[in-house]
Design brief:
By secondary structure, this protein is an alpha/beta fold. About 35% of the residues lie in helices and about 25% in strands. Helix 2 packs parallel to helix 13. InterPro entries: FAD-bd (IPR002938), FAD/NAD-bd_sf (IPR036188).
Length: about 400
Amino acid sequence: MSTSSLHVIIIGGGLGGLCLAQGLRRVEIDVALYERDASPYTRKQGYRLHIDRRGIDALHSCLPPHLFDLCMATASRPGSQVTIVTKQLKPIKVIGFSREDSPTIVPVSTSVDRLTLREILLIGLDDIVHFGKEFLRYEYLSDGRVRAFFSDGTEACGDVLIAADGVNSRVRQQFLPHASIEETDVRCIYGKTLLTEATHSLIPDFLYRGFAQVVGFRFSLALGVVDFQQFPAEAARKFVPDACFHTTGSYLMWSLNAKRRHMGMSDDKLFGLDGAQLIQFVLQKTKRWHPTLRALLAAGDPEATFPIAVRTAVPCQPWKSTSTTLLGDAIHAMSPAGGSGANMALRDAHTLCQALKAAAYGERPLIPVIHDYEALMLEEGFEAVRFSASGGVLRR
């Protein structure tokens, strides 16, 4: 039960919004979260996520101990390097991780399954997470509060409105109409190959030591294994016995990447292909690649294969702080190349939670703590955007 008078409204139920909701609940601040999707399983959003010290620290701070332990138990086995190889699997470069890396762009320390992490972040929030709530707009009330309006005709009022609604954020579009999202020329086809007895034997050893990138003339292939230390259902029996998980087992995540012109078809056609057609397209574009790679791609799950267009935020100048603010992709969306998107959303959630805690318990006024959060979030967030746009760790 809340012991503060502050009520926070979060728009968006992705990783950042849910992490913030968990953190606020943990410090007994009243919070409600509204997500437009009908359920956590409505849209495909990718699979393997890099989680580094930024994300781990945020989860440790915001989650109750048993949920943090569940996150760590279900994480993949930690990696120690990024491997760059040719399309014939000949090594080009190995990038190891060390403690001497930048304190703001820290190396990958483990990886997680996105859906499993989201399901963990949802545990215990049934009474505050509302699905099927499409946000339309907000307005400030005469008493200083904020009212949010939803497409089903309902409304919600709070002292603070948080935009955690991703790259297409409607809150950002109203609050910061000048803050723009730029479409890059990069297209990716994401896929997932389950590790069965047949496919497990095909995985190159270097993939068990971390992420890998296959470089070709026009196409590249990103590869990452999620090898659960404990399967979610098994781990849940110890930490949260009644939790339900939808993961189907350990897997190889892959992503074929190229500039739009090299795809050889319009976006309308590319995004109109079904999963089986996308896999055939990937195989056609990699027909001269190493047979092991092609076998792994051919074994991909058609239901788990989809294309994306990479978009990135354009750095913007600070604004006058109010009781509305933003986190994660809603303000600093970035290329997946740096492995920073999820980590920055989680870090934002942690930083903002601490700021709101200070305001809720009378340590500092609300607007100044939001201002300080925004200053740090913009500096770190857009540093990560630039790092990702430059190719991230692969450019070292």
